[in-house]
Design a protein that fits this description.
about 450 residues; alpha/beta; Rossmann fold; 2 domains; four-stranded parallel beta sheet
Length: about 450
């Protein structure tokens, strides 16, 4: 069976598979075009500068950011102890985790993009209304007078969970009215946490796509409402991309080189695509040809992979492939990819692979047992990456064609986790129980 037919067959039958991108450009263009807009590393630096301007205010409104001075960042964790459990043989490189499951405030990678877009909206209003002067102290936005002005405006978003949590928490903390449209697969504890923050939660019986559409339609009728559009937002994407600048410093601090003899292979869980595309864009622009980014999706929700396989002008859904879009990885339960993210990734992405839900829970338990880290199922998606490259025909072919196989011993494998910090104990215990049950079933 030809490779493309084999891939399509595995996709349709919800079996794990790997696709590698024939259009990837080794040297990324300085300006990448997506949906008619050019995006460059300068935009990433501008997003990082916005975070810096707001740091004092964030430290004031979020006690958990006081120690970091308002910086929202996660550690880079060595994970050599996990390598045997993942089947990584000696000579296949070193494993690290970019621990966004520890990100404060929102407890997930969505703290990056979601926070950035809310801050950009707040900044525009604050300058327009004279609440702060250019170059002034943004802590002025914590005063009752400023909050009264911002309180006339609404911030809304459609979400499966973590983005809504991020947007709702940050928007309400700054004084905005906040509304989160939640899809049917959103977890109850995330809705509860939002309501405790005074956020209006609108529950929908449909999937992610329908929740976003409902939120977008409602916001269109309110001139004082800013809708955070996960499918089309450049601001969200650039907030995620700023993570690359901090990671570059972390790599240097740990003596990790990124060059022809030491490639960096990054595995990113993917839902609609904005978060992983933002991170991948920042990394490729900053670190160049020797960064290889792979997206990881559930076998029933591979929306980004089906978009990358689509022809010009097509925008397919996973339902078109006979898939259910049902997965325990709620943040990844998306039927149709962001065209903005897909267009941006066309020259930059190395590939996409899919993962079965049982494997997510297995990796969740392995991460807990070897490293003591608590992640949620969607955050576990990337841990299948090294085995996909070394242990499948498609992965081995990519290692040969890319030249990475010849220098694999010097490679750094970086799994980007995405959520877990705020998961309630009872919920996490259920995750562990399922993971242990999967581990106990003998492999045929």
């Amino acid at each position: 069976m030809p490779d493309s037919a084999h891939l399509a067959a595995r996709l349709r039958t919800a079996q794990p598979c790997l696709w590698t991108n024939p259009q990837r450009q080794a040297q990324p263009p300085a300006v990448v075009q997506a949906l008619g807009r050019g995006i460059s590393l300068q935009d990433t630096h501008a997003a990082a500068a916005r975070f810096a301007r707001f740091a004092g205010l964030l430290a004031e409104v979020f006690p958990e950011l006081a120690a970091s001075g308002g910086v929202v960042e996660s550690p880079l964790l060595p994970a050599a102890a996990l390598q045997p459990a993942l089947g990584m043989a000696p000579g296949q490189g070193r494993l690290f985790i970019k621990a966004d499951h520890r990100l404060p405030v929102a407890g997930s990678i969505k703290a990056r993009g979601g926070m950035h877009e809310v801050l950009e909206f707040a900044e525009g209003l604050a300058l327009q209304q004279g609440l702060v002067a250019p170059g002034g102290d943004y802590r002025a936005l914590a005063t009752p007078e400023a909050r009264a002005v911002l309180g006339r405006y609404q911030v809304a978003v459609g979400s499966t969970g973590n983005l809504g949590l991020s947007i709702g928490v940050v928007a309400s903390a700054l004084g905005f009215q906040a509304t989160v449209h939640m899809s049917a697969d959103a977890k109850e504890w995330k809705k509860d946490r939002l309501r405790q923050r005074g956020v209006q939660v609108v529950e929908h019986t449909g999937d992610y796509e329908r929740a976003v559409a409902a939120g977008r339609a409602e916001a269109a009728g309110n001139p004082l409402c800013h809708f955070v559009d996960d499918e089309q937002s450049v601001s969200l994407l650039l907030g995620y991309s700023a993570a690359a600048l901090h990671l570059q410093r972390q790599l240097a601090e740990q003596g990790i080189a990124v060059d022809a003899d030491h490639p960096l292979i990054v595995y990113l869980p993917c839902g609609v695509g904005g978060a992983p595309a933002g991170v991948a864009f920042g990394l490729r622009q900053l670190l160049g040809p020797h960064v290889h980014c792979f997206f990881a999706e559930p076998v029933q929700s591979p929306c980004f992979l089906v978009q990358m396989l689509a022809g010009p002008g097509e925008h397919p859904s996973v339902y078109d492939w006979g898939l259910t879009n049902r997965t325990e990885a709620d943040g990844l339960a998306v039927p149709r990819a962001s065209l903005l993210a897909a267009g941006l990734m066309q020259p930059l992405l190395s590939g996409v692979f899919t993962v079965a839900d049982d494997t997510l829970f297995t990796h969740l338990v392995q991460v807990l047992d070897t490293l003591g880290e608590r992640i949620e199922p969607s955050a576990a998606a990337g841990f299948s990456g090294p085995a996909m490259l070394a242990g499948t025909p498609a992965g081995q072919a990519w290692l040969r064609s890319s030249g990475v196989g010849a220098v694999l011993q010097g490679a750094t494998h970086l799994v980007w986790t995405t959520g877990g910090l705020l998961v309630p104990d009872a919920q996490f215990a259920g995750f562990v129980q399922r993971g242990r049950a999967v581990q106990a079933v003998p492999v045929e």
